[in-house]
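Check this.
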Amino acid sequence: MPTFEHIGIVLLLSAFALELFIAVREQMNQSVIKDMLANLGIGLSTLVTGIFMKSVAYGFFSTVYHFAFFRPEPSIPLWIAGFFACDFILYVYHWLGHKTRLFWASHVTHHSSLHYNLSVGFRVSCIHVFYRFLFWSPLCLFGIPPFMILFFESLTTLYNVVIHTEKVKKLGVLDLIFNTPSNHRVRSEEHTSELQSRGLIS
């Protein structure tokens, strides 16, 4: 039976195929098409690694959850708390990926493309998959169940691929609250310029 994650993967790959078709039809520069295919290759290697590491992460989360200070029953308030807690951990994790050499070593792959489109969301090194789940594990001590953490991680992963697009313009008030495609484009452009000035990418 298809799960939320399986459906999300199929939708993302379909969106990539559509974007690639448009690029070929509009006869875009060959470097753009080659870059998109390279991004897909990197993404598929990360996806395969991620499928294996899901079970490892779940086992580790379950072990930590065994020592939780309290274990509330699943409820709407717990889901809301879990969402914001996981989102905060994602923010810290991504921030460290930009601010520390150790984590930047794997995150730099994502910022090494010379083009910006949906496929860049796939351009994520598989190396980070082996350790990123450790950042979320402390949440288990505070009663966030492992299945909930994995669900929100999958949800945010899918969303973070979608925001790498130039097709979606400004979204009004939503730009003031969420990490929308428009906001992400601005931050990516600023960061790329900074990396180029420091000679870290060409």
